[in-house]
Amino acid sequence: MPFALVDCNNFYVSCEKVFNPGLEGKPVVVLSNNDGCIIARSNEAKALGIKMGEPFFRCREIIQRYNVRVYSSNFSLYGDMSARVMETLGLLCPDMEIYSIDEAFLSLDKGIPDPIAWGMGVRKTVLKWTGVPVSIGIGPTKTLAKVAAHVAKAMPEGVVYTGADADAVLKDVDVADVWGIGVKYARKLKAMGIRTALELKDLPDNWIKRHMRSTGLRTVMELKGIACIQLGDVAFTKKSVMCSRSFGRDVHDLGELEEAVAAYASRAAEKIRAQGSAASCIQIFLASGSLRETGHGIVSSSVELPEATSYTPEIIRMVKLMVGRLYRSGTVYKKAGVILSGLVDRGKVQKSLFCPSRETPASQRLMETMDSLNQRWGRGTITFAAGGIERPWKMRQARRSPRFTTSWDELPLARAN
DNA sequence: TCTGGGGTCCTAGGACCC
DNA sequence: TCTGGGGTCCTAGGACCC
User: Fold this and answer.
1) SS3 assignment, position A288
2) Between the N and C ends of chain A, which has fewer C-beta atoms within 10 Å?
3) CB A310 within 8 Å of CB A273
4) Would the CA dihedral through A7, A8, A10, A11 be positive or negative?
5) Strand B nucleotides below 7 A of a protein CB?
6) What is the DSSP letter of A394?
7) How far is the CA of A52 from the C1' of C12 (A)?
8) How distant is the alpha carbon of residue A373 from its chain centre?
């Protein structure tokens, strides 16, 4: 049963191009939240040497010199475009796992006569229906499909197929580009002279097991064509949910800090309700000082609840208590976050013997009403005042394109002559 | 001046039990 | 004088992914 990996090309940039065809052929980049670093590049921007993850301010010069178009990230748009791509793929092949915002694994029929022709058909349909170009890799394991998709990106036809014997493909693939090999392992392998995916594949199993654990061994087996990773569950329920942001400007004031954390808490609560969960543990963290000194200036606190909840006012009440305990006057805060974990099915919450339940039928109706209003009219239509109105701390997004597909006020305009 | 946000899995080692 | 062996559970940290 071969796997196909469908990967959207330069996804965020491609989304911007759909609504702004004038960007075609131009260097374009998309920035991370808070306009911090580069997280997507058009081919033209890649050719200029702009690196993935590079801080924006460090490539200012090159951006000005070559008139690179710069966009703040617009996740409302990208999320909606992703849903369209995934819906299209689901129609073409129902046996699908949505792997990330811009990638999906498909499980193909064993007897598929011409995988390349099939892939080219998928590519054409997705492009026509959504405007998003994709690359497709097909192989006997997920890891080989990923490798094939990586190679396909550089091919004009955009589709690569490999059988179990993939040596001819693997010999030209950098070991760092193998799915499962991150920066640390890549550095270690290269220091030992292992440079390509093929050389990795041919290392002895016991060496891999010793130095790269069971996950590394699994990767190597998969390169050999032995499938170890099955298609995942599409209706995937997260085990923890986080909402965190860097602030658009420094925060000193307790009131502002409480506001920001309450806003993140309320977003996190929305997310767990959307997957039908309640949280039994709430954790917050506050980051101060320079973010470069990772690990420094981060304080955190967590609380186990007597009874799991998804009721926003209760979660806000708890996080405000925690912020109050962690806050130190005189500290400059840069970032904060809320993590909800110990997620359980909301219908199966264990009641506490000692505490009155916060999840009354009325509170549940209130949350359902809020969620449906926000879903119908857009996120943030109704919010808790505890999360702030002015929000002076909110992240920078100076160059965001309109939310063309998810906000009535921002629909694209078309003129007919 | 300025470096994102949101996840998962695995393992080693400590605490604790009998 | 002499001080075992075998478990489980939890947590922190490290690795990975996009």
Assistant:
1) strand
2) C
3) yes
4) negative
5) 1-11
6) P
7) 30
8) 25
Which run of H or of E encompasses A100?
strand A96-100
Contacts 24+ apart (CB under 8 A), A189-194: none
Bases of chain C below 7 A from a protein C-beta are: 14-18
DSSP type of residue A387 = G
> Model pTM?
0.92
Nucleotide nearest to A182 (CA to C1'): C16
Q: Round to whole Å and give the CA distance between A13 and A11.
A: 5
Distance (Å, whole) CA A293 – CA A272: 31
Strand B contact at CB of residue A32, distance < 7 A: yes
Q: What type of residue is A403? A: R
Q: What is the pLDDT along chain A (417 residues), one digit of tens a residue?
A: 899 999 999 999 999 999 999 999 999 999 999 999 999 999 999 999 999 999 999 999 999 999 999 999 999 999 999 999 999 999 999 999 999 999 999 999 887 899 999 999 999 999 999 999 999 999 999 999 999 999 999 999 999 999 878 999 999 999 999 999 999 999 999 999 999 999 999 999 988 988 898 999 999 999 999 999 998 865 568 889 999 999 999 999 999 999 999 999 999 999 999 999 999 999 999 988 755 544 457 888 888 888 899 999 999 999 999 999 999 998 899 999 999 998 988 887 877 777 777 778 899 999 999 999 998 888 888 999 999 988 999 999 999 999 999 888 889 988 888
